[in-house]
Amino acid sequence: MTGQTRASFSRPQLTLSRRPVGDPIFKWITLLMALSVFVLIILVGYELAYGSRLALRKFGLHFLTSSDWDPVNEQFGALPFIFGTLVSSAIALVIAVPLSVGTAVYLTEIAPPGIRQVLTLFIELLAAVPSVILGLWGIFVMVPWCREHLFPALRGSLGFLPLFKGPIYGVSMLAGGIIISIMILPIITSVSREILRSVPGLQREAAFALGATRWEVTRIAVLSYARKGLFGAVVLGLGRALGETMAVTMVIGNRPEIAASLFAPGYTLASVVANEFTEATTDIYLHSLFELGLVLLGVTVLVNALAQLLLKTFAGPGVKQS
Fold first, then answer.
1. Phi-psi category of 265—alpha, beta or left, where left has phi over 0 and alpha has psi -120 to 50?
2. If residue 38 lies in a helix (H) or strand (E), which one and from where to where?
3. Fewer CB within 10 Å, N- or C-terminus of the chain?
């Protein structure tokens, strides 16, 4: 009995003595994984800065405010591309956010299980479509339809606004925004759906118990509770919109100019790098394209930082982070 008692007490003590050894190892491994993301961003930024060193010396901050893009005379400026990137991304968010959040609300709160599974499958399939395929669809289907039907209707009803004036080419800033919205819609929808599913059922039950309608339950108990997480889903979609390349290149028109009309062609930072990188025959031309990549990285980081600042500023203190 004495030997059995000693054996029974020695094993748990041995197990407990080994637990603290694994915890620090697990902590440091996960810390290294988290820091690797930061290191990758630093390395990418360093490589872009090193590759654009000639353009940084020659143009300085004037590169960000200049509208000239003349490879023949070696004059380069990023302002039209920054404008095109921000405007096309804004158009995409205006279109995609209501559709995405509405779809997520329907799938979470209203749709029967059978319809929910089918719609979820199609959303996942849309997310898996390559951007070049969407670009081809945009060229041969979306742009002709917009040129013949949508854009004339917008100019006829909203032509008093500068955004919807001017000639209609088909390929345009608005077409680029529409194609980006299609690409970010499944991302925002999927993330928003998971966030809405994480809202506790007690929130809904309490609202129903107080006599609220389904719409009031969704608006007050669900959307208000999950608005921080929904904002995060929008930020994820914005990050994808800022860096989208191939599909936008095919439908935006690729003209380096700043125009008030959304019917005018435009250009984005990612598109000009993809289009002209193989055509860069001089060192300053190549370094200017590297600097455009550096500017795109800076714009992405800045926009996401501003989004996080707005989230902390305007989100209520009682809203839980999803």
1. beta
2. helix 2-51
3. N
Calpha distance 236→308 (Å, rounded): 11
Given a contact cutoff of 8 angstroms between Cβ atoms, the answer to whether 216 and 128 are in contact is: no
Q: How far is Cα 136 from Cα 140, in angstroms, rounded to an integer?
A: 6
Q: What is the C-alpha separation between 168 and 152, in angstroms, rounded?
A: 8
How, if at all, do strands 75-76 and 69-70 pair? Answer: antiparallel
Phi-psi region of 166 (alpha: psi -120 to 50; beta: other; left: phi over 0): left
Q: Output the pTM of the full model.
A: 0.84
Is 2 a residue whose pLDDT tops 60? no
Q: Which two tokens stand for residue 111?
A: 């749709």
Site of tokens 């809203």? 319
Q: What are phi and psi of 255, to 5 degrees?
A: -125, 120
Phi first, then psi: give them for residue 76, nearest 5 degrees.
-135, 140
Measured CA to CA, the distance from residue 261 to residue 243 in angstroms comes to 23
> Which residues lie below 8 Å from residue 291, measured CB to CB, with a gap of 6+?
48, 52, 55, 56, 59, 63, 76, 78
Query: pLDDT tens digit string along 12-26?
Result: 554 545 556 778 888
| Residue in the structure block whose two tokens are 């590297």 | 290
Length of the chain: 322
- Predicted confidence at residue 60, as pLDDT, reads 87
| Residues 6 or more apart in contact with residue 207 via CB below 8 angstroms | 216, 217, 220, 221
Q: Is 60 left (phi over 0), alpha (psi -120 to 50) or beta?
A: left
Q: pLDDT-based confidence at 82, cuts 50/70/90?
A: very high
Confidence tier at 3 by pLDDT (50, 70, 90):
low
79 within 8 A of 67, measured Cβ to Cβ:
yes
